[in-house]
Amino acid sequence: MLSRDDLQAISLFESLEPDQLDQILDRHRESSHQADQVIVMEQDWGESLFLLCDGLAKVRTYTSDGDEVVMSLLGAGDVFGEMAALDGDARSADVVALTPLRLVKLRVPPFAALLDKQAGFALALAKLEASRLRDLNRRFALQTADATTRLLDALAYLARKSSADNDPQAPIPALAQLEIALIAGLARETASRTLSKLRSRGTVSEESGRLRLADLQPLEKRGLLL
Fold first, then answer.
1. How far apart are CA 216 and CA 81, in angstroms?
2. Do the Cβ atoms of 13 and 21 come closer than 8 Å?
């Protein structure tokens, strides 16, 4: 079960007092999900928010032509669905498990009430949203870059989200090449060719199906290291 200390260890909640953490945890529910399971659907009405305890998920939407676009990734410690506490509107995107997940489902009313009362908590949420917006802007700015740059950025992003200490060289969970291609904004065939090239250069290594960036110099040259 998620404890008060576990919750306060997450930056969004670190300013809250013990009784306020208990409010957030009131009637929370924990659940496990398998890879490819849709956790949140776009246009659903949001009555809860979620804390990702373990695993990796993607936030996706679709273009008018039906093409999937990966907006962002979620890793352990990330909160999602929190916009429902701000505007009460429908969900703006799908959230889909990339790996097995362990989630905590939190109620919106105590979360929203604390946002109204606690300036530090509201500021922490604003900082979270600003960080996500900057990350989204940076990733979409790369959509005109060459395939190697886009794939390197996607691999570093996957590694950081899979790591407790935001390490771009952390092992990446075994994912289908199509998923990696979607995160990079590339066609599957292009991603496959580019990945083979990076393996041959020693930039990317693979062990037990898990990729890892073995050499960060190509990322440094492209300004991809945060």
1. 33
2. yes
Q: In the chain, what are the domains?
A: 4-141 (2.60.120.10), 145-221 (1.10.10.10)
Burial class (CB within 10 angstroms; exposed 0-12, middle 13-18, buried 19+) of 64: exposed
Tokens 């959230």, located at residue? 95
Phi, psi of 45 (to 5 degrees): -85, 135
Nearest to 127 by CA among 221, 13, 9: 13
State whether residue 75 is helix, strand or coil: coil
Place of tokens 């899979």: 162
C-alpha to C-alpha distance for 180 and 125, rounded to whole angstroms: 29
Q: Express each pLDDT in 44-66 by its tens digit.
A: 877 789 999 999 999 999 999 99
Q: Which two tokens stand for residue 112?
A: 């929203």
Q: Which helix (H) or strand (E) holds 53?
A: strand 48-54
Q: Across 55-176, where does the E strand assignment appear?
A: 57-62, 68-74, 79-80, 94-97, 101-107
What value does the mean pLDDT of the chain take?
93
Does the reported pTM lie above 0.90?
A: yes
Helix axes 177-184, 147-161, angle to 10 degrees: 110
